[in-house]
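Submission sheet (multi-component)
Chains listed below:
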Amino acid sequence: MTTPGRYGSFGGAYVPETLVPALRTLEEAFDAAIPEAAFQAELDRLLRTYVGRPTPLHRARRLSEAWGGAAVFLKREDLAHTGAHKINNTVGQGLLAARLGKKRLIAETGAGQHGVATATAAALLGLGCRVFMGTTDMARQAPNVARMKLLGAEVVPVPHGAGTLKEATGEAIREWMATSHEAHYLIGSVVGPHPYPRIVRHFQAVIGREARAQILDAAARLPDVAVACIGGGSNASGLFSGFLEDRGVRLVGVEAGGEGLATGKHAASLTAGRPAVLHGALSLVLTDPDGQILPTHSISAGLDYPGVGPELAAWKAEGRLEVTTATDAEALAAFRECARLEGILPALEPSHALAAAARIARELGRSGVLLVNLSGRGDKDLETVLKAGSP
Amino acid sequence: MGLDRVAAVFSKCREGNRAAFVPFVTAGDPDPGATPSLIEGLAAGGADLVELGIPFSDPLADGPVLQRSQARALAAGTTVDRALAAVAAARAKVAAPVLAMVSASLVLARGAGKFASDSAAAGLDGWIVPDAPLEESGPIRDAAIAAGLAWVPLVAPTTPPERRRSIAETARGFLYYVSVAGVTGARESLPAEVAAAVAALRDVSPVPVCVGFGVSTPPQAETIARAADGVIVGSALVAALEEALADGPAEAVRQCLAKARLLAAAVRRARRSPPQP
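Outcome: structure written.
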């Protein structure tokens, strides 16, 4: 990093002046809290006794067989409380918010997993909670809307644009502009203005730390390839940060190919994006030549986002991160395969990672070792999967 | 031209002991063809400067009225080139400076240098980039200044005093004080501390200080015009346009201009009449 919050040429804090002091206060609080033994002890305690960490590493023997014999390990973030990795970040940032004396959490959500995880942390810590959600996403992720309300959160529908994560994020940031004195904006991915990408990666890095130790234990070696799906990039950032210095470990991010890159109906910002500013950060974004943000498509609400974390864009630019895509159809097929062969219903987001992992496993062959981040459970997606018809 | 034209307007207003009236409209709302006549109408109706929003798909600082306005403009086919062409078309008939409110995303997509030279060529006089705060604005500001454009940074109610000074020092043309912590849009009442904040800002600012965000009624404009060097009104004008859209684009433009004339009159009479109780 050359200047704070820069990852190569990406990152920064392109926000209205109103928010600059709040971001600075947040960064100072984060920097003060992290080295503190008491803060870390409280976070560790909650991760262990509330979130259910460490999450297991499962050796997926039947997927291995189906994929040509490479050893396949699944990092079971779906078994974390609320059913996805999102809770790692919301508990961490929730503690920060409480430390800052904030009364309320504001969040955006796409699939609803981050919204549920934020509402959960708010309930646990005795904070108010307002979650912004696009109306399209509210329709396709109705169970999570009900969950958030049961957890005591207010769900604010965002009708404009396509009614998805992009619009919800914009609205959450606008709300924060007027309420930063009493509310903490709890962003759900490694996106947004500095210092958010750094904070979210920090709280998600537990995934990679655990997975590295677990695979050394289970396979007696590091994996050849670590695979994670990328929407904004928080689960990928969390997994990959554990292996960044292990140069022999290939890091593969899997973006939403939607109906195919050629159709334009996808959400593959690292693959097809240009440098642009979205939600306060300069990163790779799906835009037109003017810089207008383009509509996206993915069967998975959690990947349906035109931007990506600036650090991931930098990892790609440096060549550290390989990027591929999986289409809606490939993700659905991977969902079904994982259900039948491993007894696990993965969320549609990590189903993209599984689809790409199947291809990579076949390339690696029997001697290969593959680590896949199973970032969430698929219960929320049953309606989508059933609607897509039988295989 | 550019910065000089902006500076000349504020000198003239100072000589007349009045604040400048700065209406805002979105380029391409309700359609790209309407924009040159809208700029001309605003200038004829008492605008000292015109602020023209270049529509962006995801404007962070804007409330619902300006979000809808930008969505309409984009749906009507407004591009950056068409917005600049509208400025060029109006420039032939309008002496008032025209400044663009433009997102960093659009500036960086074209490249700040190219955006600046294209702006100057179209007869645009300056930039306000609401999502390029001090830490990020360097290259964009440099490009604007190199092209002879005014550079108008923003100070918010949340900005600490030392930082206000640092921001003011980068301003060329004028400084924009955001009257409320939040997005653009009409407010029923403005914070009581605006006048004091503007007075303090004028003490440290080498350039005039204009106030915007939340100013929507003639009495509000009058109050601000007593304290500030300029009054910026956006959402209220765009709301007037939007409300009349059902009667067609020509009527929408007429209603917008009528509202602007009322606000211009309020700004002009502010320092000639005693404050309202």
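Remark: The radius of gyration of chain A is 19 Å.
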